[in-house]
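QA checklist item 7 of 12: single-chain prediction sanity check.
[x] sequence parsed
[x] length recorded as 506
[x] structure emitted
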Amino acid sequence: MDARSAKEYSKDDWAKLASEAESKVEGRLFINGEYVDAEDGGKIDVINPATNEVFGTCAAGTGKDIDKAVAAAKESYKARTWLKMAPRKRMGIMMKFADLINKNAAELALMETMNMGKPISDCLNVDVPASAVNLKFMAECIDKMYGKVANTHEKALNLSVREPYGVVGCISPWNYPLLMGIWKIAPALAAGNSVILKPDEHSPHSLIKIAELFVEAGGPPGVLNVVSGHGEEAGKALALHPDVLKIGFTGSTEVGKLLLQYAGQSNMKKVSLETGGKSPMIFFADLPNMDQAVGTAYDSIYANMGEVCNAGSRIYVERGIYADFVDQFIAQGQGAYTPGDPLDPETNMGPLVTAQAQKRVLGFIESAKSEGATLKFGGGVPSGLESGCFVEPTLFSDVNNDMTIGREEIFGPVASIIPFDTEEEVIGMANDTIYGLCASVWTSNVSRAHNMAKAIESGMVYVNCYDVGDMTFEFGGYKQSGNTKDSCFESVLGYTQSKSIWYNLG
């Protein structure tokens, strides 16, 4: 089934496909071009968070399986089966890889929905095609990585060239399983590395499938391997492995810090981190369009159930328009996202990823109430959906930076609106956080916009918009939001290292 026909499927059609797929979905490891069981035979139940029922399993990979995958990747790199290909041939394989992702859109979208609860329409219309676009962009970068020739005296030649690391480990999160996995492996492959991908155990199936598609596209065995398993076992083993020379990670700040420790304990491998945020959206009274501003504000926190690292979770509004902004947010935002069956193409909000995540978000909501924030709507489990991990879209006003919901990353559909009086005050509040991933400034004053963009401690700043752009826009943050750039040309260079070569021509 291609993406075009899949878009015509009804809720009943998707439910039938899900029922058929449950016993067929592939959950084994993919190492050296073939599916294999975990060495110890362990398996992990993958839970559908919409029902809290099991949807297939994945292999519980351990250090033994990581060793096996690293050996296959190392052998493929030593043999230069990928790197020795002409750049345009590698580019062609990655282009075909992207086409196969689009061709298998329905299957991949269904896996995303059943693994982490994302609405099927989002998976089909956003995540899968965006993954293919990212792959094609990275493929186009393959023959566009240039070295440098220094200006030396006539009897010498000084070159600086870029080379892949060799064996690279990638660890991807559960909130955008396919897309974030592609964000990691695509630049690593484009740079010429051999890769071991460790997907999150809650959402492994689409990433196990794409390893098969890479080989089908012509990718050599051993170049892309997938080892599922628990982070404290498979992930830790990958980060500690002495033959892995680089780790690319998207996930929590807590785990990112552990990976830095593991790198120091092993071989001082390079570690690229994207580790979440608490992103401020700042709305001045002279914002150009109130309707657009409010719509962007609730989209930025309710899309993907709020399980987004750059969600606009702190909404700062100048006091002169604060009451109007809150009223309009309630009028427009309260019914904009309705939790429901994620297999229904009409649903635009699914469950949170696990019962534990649901409990955590509900705990944040209770803390907000006890700390004095004003609940405007939501705050509970939607009626009729108690069997799943659902949380209602929620809005609090009268929040401040000292409250728990004003400081901690909630990773759920909980919006906080915070008043401010002056430009200097809101800069201080926006920067009063350990994070620095993303920010947004809304104003008609060009000078103010420019000054604010420079003053905010964030790796990305949007002006009169949010979470838009293309792959010319480098995705990455400051402070404890990470140390790398994703989904851009810079990310390919990040999977290479520089070598200097001096020729004596005398």
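[x] summary fact logged: The mean pLDDT is 97.
[ ] second reviewer sign-off
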